[in-house]
Design goal:
Helix content is 36%, strand content 17%. The chain folds into 2 domains: 17-265, Alpha-Beta Barrel (TIM Barrel); 270-339, Putative flavin oxidoreducatase, domain 2 (Non-ribosomal Peptide Synthetase Peptidyl Carrier Protein, Chain A). Helix 9 (224-234) links the parallel strand 12 and strand 13. It is α/β, with parallel strands linked by helices and 385 residues long. Strands 4-5-6-7-8-11-12-13 form an 8-stranded parallel barrel, surrounded by 7 helices. Strands 1-14 form a two-stranded antiparallel ribbon. The protein has a two-stranded antiparallel ribbon with strand order 2-3. The chain contains 15 helices and 14 strands.
């Protein structure tokens, strides 16, 4: 691929999470319907880091839900099995953590307290839950206790707060540290912002100064240079990359170079992009079968072709692809020599939307120290979001 290299500032070389050492300190954010075994392998083939499975529910694990268990698939090359767990009940979260460690060989458990999706927040989960400080502490402590006999580190991901008037990240950081959590990742947006606006890196820097455990920064990392700048500006121990890698798994190659002190911007021609698309579809069919694998691949087409001149009819056909053979035929219709659209560098990718009202359980904001539970843990929240 066409590469542009130049010296870059020295940055941290690894992230330490309990017994785990992750180099470079780069984490693939768990994304629903995206970070399955196929995509994690595709990204890992480009560069090193920690690659987290898409979110699963603690209740789904405990009750052996077939859909949940089908998501606990790991590629044979995954040396570190990392899973993000969702839950609102300390008992369920603790038991699920134990099952993941004992039965599935999981090496790292991340707890989701950042999801902004209404079906999650209306049940008091995701980014809404840190408002209940005692409940947050009980969930974290339960997971840490369950993971401790297996030497598995527990981390958490959260947001700044529910909205600008209800910030929670400082309390969440303190509680995480007191509970024995190995690190906390902070997305520099509130739940009400969802993915809109600009991420607040100053909040990440504030949390770094507030706690002694490692803080990972998340939000608006579109290029490797953004990751280096975030670490330099905030003092974060590493970065979490989500939407920036959609349709660009080679971003992890650039990130690995950046954390090695180099500056690398990979600019693949369209022929190289189509080869990556084919590899992605191939991996999906390996894990999911050709029919479902191709259907899962469809969502990635627009991200891979973002900025390229591919015609509308061809794009529509790719968005309906149903077999590897038809995919090969369609990809052959693209100009392999078309250069990468450099105008897309640094631009947001994936969903953005606009600020919105956060849907919460009734009277949720009345009590910050409660342990209000949805009893039993809500079953309407599905693994994978």
């Amino acid at each position: 691929m066409g590469d542009v290299t130049a010296p870059a500032p020295v940055v941290p070389q690894e992230l330490v999470l309990g017994p785990l050492r992750v180099g470079p300190p780069v984490v693939l954010a768990p994304m629903a319907g995206i970070t399955n075994a196929a995509y994690r392998r595709l990204c890992r083939e480009q560069g090193a880091g920690l690659y987290v499975c898409e979110m699963i529910t603690s209740r789904g694990v405990v009750e052996r839900d077939p859909t949940t268990l089908s998501m606990l698939v790991f590629d044979e090359s995954e040396e570190i099995r990392s899973v993000q767990l969702y839950g609102t009940d300390p008992a369920y979260v603790g038991k699920a953590t134990e099952i993941l460690c004992a039965e599935h060989g999981v090496d790292h458990v991340d707890l989701n307290f950042g999801c902004p999706v209404p079906k999650v927040t209306r049940k008091g989960g995701g980014g809404a839950l840190p408002w209940k400080r005692r409940l947050l502490g009980e969930i974290l402590a339960s997971a840490v206790r369950a993971a401790q006999p297996y030497g598995v580190p527990v981390t958490m991901k959260t947001r700044k707060g529910i909205d600008a008037d209800h910030l929670t990240y400082r309390d969440a950081g303190r509680i995480a540290q007191e509970s024995g959590v190995s690190a906390i990742a902070l997305h520099g947006r509130t739940v009400s912002q969802a993915y809109s606006g600009k991420a607040d890196w100053e909040a990440i820097a504030d949390l770094v100064s507030w706690v002694d455990i490692p803080v990972l920064g998340n939000g608006d990392i579109w290029e490797a240079t953004d990751a280096v700048r975030m670490v330099a500006e905030t003092g974060a121990a590493g970065v979490v990359v989500g939407r920036g890698c959609l349709g660009r798994p080679w971003l992890f190659r650039d990130l690995a170079a950046a954390f090695a002190g180099e500056r690398l911007a990979t600019l693949p021609a369209l022929g190289e992009v189509t080869a990556m698309m084919r590899r992605h579809a191939e991996l999906l069919t390996h894990y999911l079968g050709e029919d479902r694998g191709c259907r899962e691949f469809r969502k990635h087409v627009s991200w891979y072709l973002k900025g390229f001149r591919a015609g509308g009819e061809l794009r529509r056909s790719l968005g309906l692809v149903s077999s590897l053979q038809s995919l090969d035929t369609l990809l052959a219709g693209l100009d392999p020599q078309e250069p990468f659209p450099v105008g897309e560098l640094g631009a947001p990718r994936g969903r953005q939307g606009s600020p919105r009202h956060v849907v919460l359980p009734q009277h949720w904001l009345d009590d910050t120290d409660g342990t209000q539970l949805l009893a039993p843990e809500d079953a309407s929240v599905l693994s994978g979001g």
